[in-house]
Structures are given as structure tokens and as C-alpha cells.
User: Fold these one by one.
Assistant:
Number 1:
Amino acid sequence: MVDIIQWARKKSPWICHFNTGGCNGCDIELVAALTPRFDVERFGVLLKGSPRHSDVLVVSGPVTLQTRARLIRIYEQMPDPKFVLVVGVCGCSGGVYHGCYNSIGGVDKVIPVDVYVGGCPPRPSEIIDGVVQILGKIPKTVRPDSSTVKKEAVQQ
Amino acid sequence: MNSEEIRAMVAGRFSDAVTGVPRERRVTVQVAKERLLEVLEFFHGQGLTHVTAITGVDLIGENAFEILYHLYWGRNMVIVRTKIPRDNPVVPTVSPIFPGVVTYERELQGMFGIRVDGIPDPRRILLADDWPEDVYPLRKDYVVK
């Protein structure tokens, strides 16, 4: 039974997209990656409107003071096991927004991240490769616990 | 009307204003804070009804803020600039003349802590909800944590 669930999970990673305050460039590339030209549905990838329906959270952009609480809330709404894919160098490290008064840096300062895709912006093929890498992690990944959200990030 | 003609017209009308043409199609008018509304009203009467942007500059070396009102006039850009002391940063609102500037003035208040006197809507606009009240990120003495 567990094997069947694991198989189903691997064949249909539904994704949810959230921009935490970036310039929109990575979002355009992500939308391009979802077009029939790249045909991500061959991997079972579907874009869902709600985090409650998705397995993978795709985050783009540096985390700003305003979006930090929203990002945590979206992450907590996702059902376990959940995976986080960061798209773009801003979400990885803060990028060009590093040191800005309203930016707190990369996504991994707020929620645990499974795969980082660099680039400014990354090409659609690289984003698809990131999702495929997450699929490769599924059998090995220990079920993440919601309590892994960094507590100090919530209190700040 | 070319830039030099605009400059000459303003200089003739306001003798205490410092005018210049830094480059083609750009006219600057520097006035005291007290004369600001008068000058802007004059331009409004000439048919300049659009403030493109308001810029705040922190001249910390001179202990002053400079505020620039960018007015769009056909092929020319007219920039009305005024300096105010840094320890008492107050400017009058120009919203009675140009109603659309309220969002710019709200941003000016939040980013620089410049009090806009008589602003119809003083709420903060761009800073995060949990941003502290008396911290102004675009001031030069603001330290990024």
C-alpha cells in the first residue's frame, strides 16, 4: 500500500507557485515551463491554485518582511510530505536584493528547502530538472515535519 | 516652447528662484519651501497638470532633505526642487493643486519621515505592516540589519 502511494506521488507531483517578492522574471520562466512546448504533464506535473492540493511548493524571489508570514502560512497549509523548490538566485541567497532594508534573504531562512535552481532567471528546462530532482528524492526523503519551520523566523 | 524659453519665463516670473537647464529638455527650478506652492500653482496654470514623480534626497552632509517634483510638460521635464532642514522636515502638501500626488506623498512620509503638512490621507503605503513607526529606511543614517 505504501508502495502504491509512493508510486502515485512520484507520478503526479502537483505544484503550487508563490512569489515572495521577486521581480517576476522567474515567474515568467515558470509559466513558460508549464506550456505545451515543454509538456511537463508527461511527468504528471500540474499547477494547482491551492497549497492544500499540492506536493511541491515552487518559490521565487527573496523573502520580504511582508511575505515572510504568508510564506510560512502557505507552507503549513500543504499536506505532508511536502517539498520546496526554489527557483532563481534571489530565492537561493537573496540575490540582488541582498542587504535591502525590506529583504531577509533566501527562502531557506524561513522554510526548509529541498532543491535550489539558480539563475537569473533559470531556463524552463532547468526548472523542470529541479522538479525531476525532487521526484528522485521522494523514496529516500524522510517525511518532513511541520515543526521544522524555524521558530525564530516566526517570532521575529 | 524649448527649455531655455521655459527657464526664462520662470526666471522672469519668480526672481528668487534659481533656474537652470542642465541639459536639453530638462529645466530645474529651485525655490524656498514657502514659495513652493506658488511656483507649482503657476505651472499648473500653464497647463502642467501631471506630476510624474516626487523624489526625496537625504543630503545628510548639509543636514537637509531635498524634495524634487517632476512635472511633465510636452517634450520637456520641469523639476521643481526645494530644500528643507533635516531636523524639522515638513513640507506643505501639493494635493490641492495636483490631486494625484497623495500616494507619492504617503511614500515620502514613510521612507524619509518627512511630514507632509495637510495630507488628506496620512496612512503608510509601501512599508511592511510590522515595520516600526519611527524608522525610515531611505534615510542615509539607516543601518541595514
Note: DSSP finds six helices and seven strands in chain A.
Number 2:
Amino acid sequence: MPALAAAPVAGLAVFYVWPLATLLTRVLEPGSVSDALSAPGLSHVLWFTLWQALVSTALTMAIGFAPAYLLARFRFRGRGALLAMVTVPFMLPTVVVGAAFLALLPNSWHGTARAVIVAHVFFNIAVVVRLVGAMWAVLPTDLTAAARTLGAKPAQVLRFVVLPLLRSALWAAATVVFLFTFTSFGAVKLLGGAANPTLEVEIARRATQLGDVDGAAVLSLLQLLILGAVVWWSSRWQRRATVHLGAGGVARTARARHERRFVAFAGALTALVMVVPLVVLTSRSFRLGGGWSLNAWRMLGSSEVRPGISLGVDPLASLLTSLKFAVVAALVSVVIGGLAALAIAAARRHGSLLDVGLMLPLGTSAVTIGLGMLITFDTAPFDWRARWWLIPLGHALVATPFVVRALLPVLRSIPVDQRAAAATLGASPLRAWLAVDVRRVLRPLTASAGLAAAISLGEFGATTFLTRAGRETVPIAISRLLGRAGEIPRAQGFALATILLVATGLIIGVASGAARADGGARAGGE
Amino acid sequence: MLVANDITVRFGERTVLDRVSLTVASGEVVALLGPSGVGKSTLLRVIAGLLTADSGSVSLDDRDVTMLPSHRRNIGLVFQDEQLFPHLTVAENVAFGLRMQRVGRAATAARVAELLQLVGLAALANLHVTKLSGGEAKRVALARSLAPRPAVLLLDEPLTGLDRELHDRLATELSALLRATGTTALLVTHDVDEATAIADRMERL
């Protein structure tokens, strides 16, 4: 166990704990807290962050309710496809969602809070469908039938039976959506404009544009404290709201006419809402000067708009950079995550400590991670800011927990007897391990490698801090292109976002296919 | 009087009920017998309005209720697995139907107390239903369905899953209770002895 755990522990210590500790020392410097908190505009930032998160959460819950009900309770043709349509946006890079709404919404909406909120709802409907739907699917159907025979009108069934029983799932979903929208970065940066900065955007602005690293550090810590308080408060409520249900419900085919109408209407509307922004994004990359054109795509290969006039961003080069980073991030997180999973599975008690430790980067905002790395690795012999590998390592930090999550259940489910059986059949320990263990982890390993690559391809927040000129990743290039005036860079941004959309979609499709084929080892997944 | 006339229900290719008719006179307790899988529960669901039949009609006291939604039929249903509301106490479960009709607080409390007395669970009024034993849960389900005074009470194998001794005792209690309240009832069972113990009349499906 100690030998196996060495690399994951060292990685976590150097690339997560150390940067966070550095951030903390910046906060503790005399005057930095009072300076940061008295800086003008902070109350505006805090207020905007809070209210847009609350409104986004409320709207997401309200709008996600119907598809959650539909997908949890009914069997119909195309159900699997609809579930995928709802889930995929959640896994898309934030810049792709931001770009899609930039393409979809009229110009008068650009740079407004409305645009940010609409994108947040689109992005997070999956959370409601997944979390609330999972609970709804096991809610006994006869419980609502019982309420109806007791004279409850549909609205009363909802109010007195369904909502109380779903309360813990509703809380969980609302908390997750709130946390995501409170720490939103990519979508806000693309859609919110200068007038609507979230705390996350303000941290990045202070650190990278104003050079006020201390102030940025104070704000990241403030954000961490707020998030911690929200999680603590919500988990208390959630525990209180938990109701233990008996036997599960059954999804069924709609029979009554009003049910068939609901399934058709809600299904079509959901599909429309989930697909239209992505279709518009793609089509806008082919629009130039009021007509259809392939020019934006043709010009992806060069950084010049016109001979001699440079954009400063080379879209095609960013694609190659992102691919390289994704491969490295996937390899690193699979190796580190694999070692960690083996160590955790082997050691019972101390294992869980490593498990929790590796999960921490997930709960830390991307901007905090990026900022921590930026201010930590800036002095020799650790001046790694200019090293290309720092970015994929940051991506791997976020992706590793997923590898561990995917591998652990499989490793734990391997019976010792199987290995013993292999040994008695004359296999050497190494052969036995290869024959039994490796064969079973191959599929989840492939799936999580794909997920790690997808995370790396789309990562924006942390990369913002670590990116260097000439080495932009695709999300960075997209945000630069869409930030430019002019039709061509815009169309190029949409084209690049389309490429990222397709790449991420393909990787997720293949990875979830691999995870599903593995269904025997761990039911349900996730 | 409950009349189910020519009820047909198909699930895809499979015909579960084929032109079934049935009458229960007011104040009568009828047992519906038949092997499992023959569509007894399906018929109860059609009568209760939980399932739309492909054809046929249901009428209650000469009023056609075929198109009426469940909550406006005033037909109670005791489920085989009780389906008590797990987030409510015993008393709150029994009060549910009255609350839906916006019956006053005092009247509700009196009715709940009366029914809990009737099923012998007055002492458990404030207990959460998840803490009940099997027999207690059956009694609460019965009290809950009776509370809003349904025109007809449907019982879907209400005594299945209990041990022999408890089963026999509850069968006697149930029979007495239905008579004492003058309830019109349709009881689904696959047990002839149970049917004889509780019902005035038997129908086979």
C-alpha cells in the first residue's frame, strides 16, 4: 500500500495542497484581507453572483421538473435518445455552451444577466433530471394512486405526496445547481460581459488583469468558505428530509389520452430545448455576410484574417495543443488514479483518507486551482509556469477522482478466490493478477480515460491562469475568438466550438458505451 | 350499487379482461375469486379509475362514472401492499382523504379518532407508519380508506402476506368492520376460505 500510494500522495501534495497553502499564506499577509474586501465593486460582484445563482437554480428546478417526471415515469420510443440529449449538455465544456447561446440569443441579450441565466438552466437541467428523476423512478406508483382514490386532485397529489417524498432529492439537486451556477466561469465570461461578473470571474480579473494576486487569493478563500457553508447547511436539511421508501415504482407506457399527450408534448419540447442551441451553434459557423459560407472553416488553419493581419490566435494549432494536453492528462490521471485505486482497495482504513483527499480538487473551483498553481510555481527551482506540462497536470488533478471512482467498485468486487484459483492452476502471481484483475478493469479504465480526455479538452477556468501565448487550448482560443469584434473571428469561434462539441460528444459516447458494456461488474454506473 | 359492464382491457397484444361484468348491491360485500394473473386487480383499478379500460362502463348508484377521474369517484381502494404515505404518521395517513376534502380540523380529528378506535390502533396515532408491524399497517390502510366514507370500498387481497393466525383474526375483524360500517365492498382474493369468512356472495373470474 505505501509504495502504491506514494505517487498519488506526492502528486496531490505538490499540485493541490501546496498551491492551496500558498494561497492561504497570501491571504494571511497583513492588510490583504481588508484591502481586498474594501475594493470598490465587491458588493456588486457578490450580489450578482448570489442572485444569478438563486434565479438560475429556481428556474432550473422548475423547468427540469417536467422532463424529470417524463423520463422517470414513462416508457416511450426514443426515451434513451432523449435522456442522452438532456445529459450531454451537462458534460459539455462551458465555453461550448456559452458559444451556443452567443450564437442563439439576439445581440441585445449579449452581455446581460438574462443570457447567463438561460445558459445556466440549459446546462443544469441534467442535474434535476438525474437526481430528482432517480428518486422519482423509485417512488411507488401506487402511492400516488392511493392518494387519488382518497380524493386528492392532481395538484394535491403533487403537493401532499410527491413533493414531500422527493424533498431530499430536490434539495440535493438544488444544492448542486446552486454550487455550479455560483462558481460559473466560462458561461459568465462569454455571455455576461463586463457588467455581470461572478466571484469566479472577478478572481480571474484581479489576478490576471489587475495583478492583484493577494486580492484574488482572499476572494477565492471567501468563495471556498461560502461554498463550504452552503454544503454543510444543505446536507443538514437533506438528512432531515430523507424518507425511506418501500418497493420501487415502475415506468410504464402512457395509456390515458392526457398521458399520451403529455409524453408527446413534453418529450418534443425537451428535445427541442436541448438540441436547438447546439444546432444553431453549428449552423452559425457556416454563416458569413448574410449567406452560407465555408470560409470560417477554411481559415481555421491560419492566424491571419487577411494577408498580413494577424488574429493572434491560431485555431488549428490550438486544436493540436488541446489534443496533446488531453492525451497527457488522460495518461497521467489513469496512471495516478489507477495506482490510487489499487492502494485504496488494498488498504481498508487509511485508504478512505486518500480517497477523500483525491476528491478535494473536484470540490475546489477551477479558478482557485489555476490561481494556486500560478502563484506557487513561479520561483526557481519550481518555476514551472512556462512549462507546457503544468496545464495537463492541472487537468489530470480534476480528472483523477473520476478514474478512482470508476475503478474502485470493480477492484473491490474481485473475489480473492478467483486469484487463488488462478494460482492453484499454476499461474505465477503476476500472471494471476494479469489474468484476473487487469481483464476486469480494462473497460472502466478505458471509460475513465475517455472522460479524463473530455475533461481536459473542455477545461477553461484553471487553464485561463496557466495558458501562454502560442500555446492556447481550444476553449481559450474559442473565448478569444468570440471576444473579438468582426464576423470572421466570430464564425471561426463557432466553428471551433462545433469541433469541440463533436469531439466531446464522441468521447462521451464511446466512454459511456464502454462503461455500459461493463454493466455486469457494476450496475448502473456513475 | 356498483355496476361494471362489459369491461375489456388489453395490454398490447394481451387481453387481460374480456367483456367482464359485475354488480355489487348497496351494503353488500362481494368476493371476487380467481387464480392469480386473471385480471382481478386490473378490474379493481378500472373501477377505481386508476386505469382506463379499452371498452365498457362503470356506474355507481345509477350514475355513469366511466369518464370521471379517480379523485371524483368516491371509491376507496385498499392496496395489497397498503401504500401508506411513508412521510406521515398513522393519524395523518388516516386523515389524508378528509384533508383533501378540506374537512374542518375538529371534524377530522374526531373521525380519525373514531376509525383508529375501530381498528384498535388509537394508541399508535402519532407513530410514523414506517415503524408499524405488518398487521398494524393493514389496519391503518383500512382505516385510511374508510375515513372519507367511500360509496364503495375495493380491497385488493388485503390479507395476503400475513401469517395464518393473524390472517384469520384480521379476516374476522374485517368482516365485522364492514358490516358495522354498512360498507359496500368488493374484495379480491384467491383464497376461498377468506372469501367465505368475509363476503356475502362470491363471483369468479
Note: Strands of chain B lie at 2-11, 14-24, 29-33, 55-60, 63-64, 75-78, 152-156, 185-189, 201-204.
